[in-house]
Target: Inward rectifier potassium channel
Amino acid sequence: MAKKRRFQDLGFGTALREDQDRLILPNGQFNIYRDNAFFERFQSYQWLVELSWSSFFLVLTTFYLLINTVFALLYLAVGIEQLSTGNPELSHFWQAFFFSVQTLTTVGYGSVSPEGFWANCIAAAGAFVGLLSFALATGLLFARFSKPNLKLRYSKNILIAPYQDGKALMFRIANARQKVLAEAQISLVASWLEENELGQLGRKFSPLSLEREQLRIMPLNWTLVHPLNEDSPIQNLGKSSCSRQKLELIVIFQAHDDSHGIQLRSYHSYSSEEMVWNAQFVPMFQAGRNGQTLLQLSKISDFEYVKL
Model:
């Protein structure tokens, strides 16, 4: 008799209300909000490292303009006469602003210089802030470039497709980067609302067996298959019951990144609204040039309807 696989609790608990939404968002983030203080839960370093590149450079640019504006206003507050006049065609604000830029960046063209005591104090503070700012920006850039990043694409939908003499749940994933992913492992967990013996509504979890749960290497896309047979805990769930019981299929992926020598993880989930019945995926790779295989990532979610 085969030994039953032990289920590892996902940590969400079962006492979840019916009006609660999905547990894991499509972007892989947990759908959990913590009501502690903002500054307690907010981590600026992690936020800056995980921002998109466009948002990161927008933050840097905003900070650069803002800090120079602050110092320009300080120069105006102590009196513009404490700065030697540079370009008379510029207004006092812009003279102070560009002098702050030259000070923070340690460029120092020499066209404008501080002459009064307070102007020299502000210039000294500006140089100090500039050194710290560029050191922090350099560290953040290095952290962002060196941070391992798993770019895993998931199909938009999970399909109920023909499989052998019956049907199966199917979704597929693909590595969007050239880096090699080895020892890839994946697990699929179903979660749905169900009444217990006391008539209390709670959330139930159950692991779903997959046709293949491991790959030694992952050069192409990977189609995951869960047969809907007598061993499946969701075999008898139909369209209406999946929606009524808020079925959610949670995906946990991990693989070894050869280039960085570490384990990478990715989380995803499918709700009942993202299930497509009586459909199958279309092929997403074909023969390419020079004997290569062309993997068409744009087709990862493409499917066609079939009769079951």
Q: What stands out?
A: The CA atoms of residues 142 and 209 lie 41 Å apart. The helical segments are 38-41, 44-50, 53-78, 92-104, 117-146, 239-244.
